[in-house]
Amino acid sequence: MKQTTNAIVMIRPVAFRMNEQTAVNNYYQKVLDGLLPSTVNAKAQQEFDDFVEKLRAVGVDVTVIDDTLETDTPDSIFPNNWVSFHENGDVALYPMFAENRRQERREDILDTLEDKGFVISNIIDYTSAEEDGFFLEGTGSLLLDRANAKAYCALSPRADEELFIEFCEDFDYAPVIFEAFQTVDGERKLIYHTNVMMCLGETFAVICADCIDDKKERKMVLDNLKADKKEIILITEAQVNNFAGNMLEVKGTNDKKYIVMSASAHQSLTPKQIAQLEGHAEILSSSLDTIEACGGGSARCMMAEVFLPRS
């Protein structure tokens, strides 16, 4: 199984704003005072367009889909939470914590991919779990080491353990389960998505081990990464707050690898960390300040990787 792909889907926002329904447990979101909603959306669109341009310039195959005004979907810019695409032609659809995020799931997006020559052979739908109040938000909640058939998951209100295990059984992944925390107003609270504090590349892993408060769990996670010969690049909680955990490795022209992140993530890294990362792939960063502040997500969340076979 490949760990990285050249193809990604990105959703261009039309009514981006801070989603009040996700702010209850996404402590990275901020209210940008004094900005009109239209200004926030225009800034987000500019950041989005600049980001897509940079990805395409290095040969990443980006399918851009416009969000629709028919639904109130302020977080549609983060498609990796509701869908994942797999090498055997499977597509997984995930149950979402916020009610207004459930409308992000759109069949026409799958149709667009099929029109581009991608083959979808099977849809595995976990969304009925929403009715019972259980959630698993795609590759936000679960980090897939596709090459080593392992899935990492930091449990949270948006990552249910039983659902995660069901996913692992369906897709033949070995589950690696733990809890990750951040300090909010002096209290340790669960981090809402695993991909905020951790990133898995082909030959490296970026992780904030300090977020895993339980020493046994921390050792277990690090041991799993070491067993798969990944270079472990440790980041701090302060760097997590700058979205340094929210990176993604993709392929450009001639399968050249890039580690994609936001400008704030890039700026938060030390020279040593940058050198470690550059030992694996070239860094590509883009300013996502508005999207990060209002959305509480960053570069990785904006890219849904497409591993589907092509016809």
Q: What's this model, at a glance?
A:
Keywords: Transferase. By secondary structure, the protein is of the alpha/beta class. It has helices spanning 37-57, 107-115, 138-141, 161-171, 215-227, 237-241, 263-268, 271-278, 289-295; strands at 7-12, 61-66, 83-85, 90-93, 122-125, 142-145, 150-154, 174-178, 181-184, 187-190, 198-200, 204-207, 231-234, 248-251, 257-262, 282-286, 304-306.
Number of domains: 1
Mean pLDDT: 93
Which architecture name does CATH use? Answer: 5-stranded Propeller
- Main β-sheet: number of strands, strand sense, barrel status? 3 strands, mixed
Count all strands and give the number. Answer: 17
GO molecular function: transferase activity
Keywords: Transferase
Protein name: Amidinotransferase
InterPro entries: Amdntrnsf_FN0238
Report on this model:
The chain is built from 9 helices and 17 strands. It has 311 residues and is of the alpha/beta class. The chain has a single domain (7-305), classed as 5-stranded Propeller (L-arginine/glycine Amidinotransferase, Chain A), CATH 3.75.10.10. Strand 12 (204-207), helix 5 (215-227) and strand 13 (231-234) form a beta-alpha-beta unit. The protein is globular and about 45 Å long. The model has no long low-confidence stretch (mean pLDDT 93). Helix 1 packs across helix 9.
